[in-house]
């Protein structure tokens, strides 16, 4: 079954700083790149989200004297986890992974550009009112369904999926094409939040075109892998 033109692949933050060896590495983040490339080749509608912070961003621990990475503070828009400096715009760490091969992607959404507001989601900044314009872009093109892949499953992928649902889209997260940070149980919490919101949690073999039996087996394998990583945290 071909993938509908009303369906888009949303690739989240596959950038050097989120790959092992980067400033904010997601374990095994590099391992998903070949799978994302294979999935991307089957979609006509592909959008890439890219973290793109100015130096001194409010989400950086280095911007708050006396604070350390992974501390949680209150900012004017609410609770904020502090991170190591990462994905500073126009630096190598902010670049897309060199092996990501999606030449037909129509749009790159850069997020986290406001120095005072973080943005996990590709749809809304962390103040929950400032939009990136992605929902309007998709709706103008008649897209009603998004498949999400990338990094990190329990932060930027999750928030993008939740906001896609809130904006009226069907949303599916391809578990084996994501990896998580899993900070203090964040992976298990993310899985629960997405399930409650009606986000589909699937394996890559459940993207249209794969045999249904293989899809069920692969979904169980993907869920098993996610659960195993959550239990190890």
TrEMBL record:
A Pfam family of this chain: Isochorismatase
- Superkingdom of origin: Bacteria
Q: What is its EC number?
A: 3.5.1.19
Q: Which residues form the Isochorismatase-like domain?
A: 7-203
Look up the record and name the pathway of this protein: Cofactor biosynthesis; nicotinate biosynthesis; nicotinate from nicotinamide: step 1/1
GO MF terms, alphabetically ordered: metal ion binding; nicotinamidase activity
Please indicate if the UniProt record lists Metal-binding as a keyword: yes
Keywords of the record, alphabetical order, are: Hydrolase, Metal-binding, Pyridine nucleotide biosynthesis
Q: Does the keyword Metal-binding apply?
A: yes
InterPro entries referenced in this protein's UniProt entry, alphabetically? Isochorismatase-like_dom (IPR000868), Isochorismatase-like_sf (IPR036380), Isochorismatase_Nicotinamidase (IPR052347)
Similarity comment: family membership: Belongs to the isochorismatase family.
Matching NCBIfam families: PRK11609.1
Q: What is this protein called?
A: Nicotinamidase
* Source organism of the structure: Pseudomonas mandelii PD30
């Amino acid at each position: 079954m071909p993938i509908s033109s009303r369906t888009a692949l949303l690739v989240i933050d596959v950038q050097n700083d989120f790959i092992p060896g980067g400033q904010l590495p997601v374990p095994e983040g590099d391992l998903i790149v070949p799978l994302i490339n294979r999935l991307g080749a089957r979609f006509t509608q592909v959008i890439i989200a890219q973290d793109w912070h100015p130096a001194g961003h409010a989400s950086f621990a280095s911007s708050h004297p006396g604070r350390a990475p992974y501390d949680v503070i209150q900012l004017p828009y609410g609770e904020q986890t502090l991170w190591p400096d990462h994905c500073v715009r126009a630096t190598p760490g902010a670049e897309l992974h060199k092996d990501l091969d999606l030449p037909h992607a129509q749009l790159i959404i850069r997020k986290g550009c406001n120095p005072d507001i973080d943005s996990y989601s590709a749809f809304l900044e962390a103040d929950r009112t400032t939009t990136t314009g992605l929902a309007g872009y998709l709706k103008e093109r008649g897209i009603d369904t998004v498949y999400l892949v990338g990094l990190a499953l329990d932060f930027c992928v999750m928030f993008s999926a939740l906001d896609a649902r809130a904006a009226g889209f069907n949303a599916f997260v391809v578990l084996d094409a994501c990896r998580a940070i899993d900070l203090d149980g964040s992976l298990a919490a993310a899985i629960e939040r997405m399930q409650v919101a009606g986000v589909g949690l699937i394996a890559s073999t459940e993207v249209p075109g794969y045999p249904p039996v293989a899809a069920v087996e692969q979904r169980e394998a993907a869920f098993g892998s996610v659960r195993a990583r959550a239990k190890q945290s």
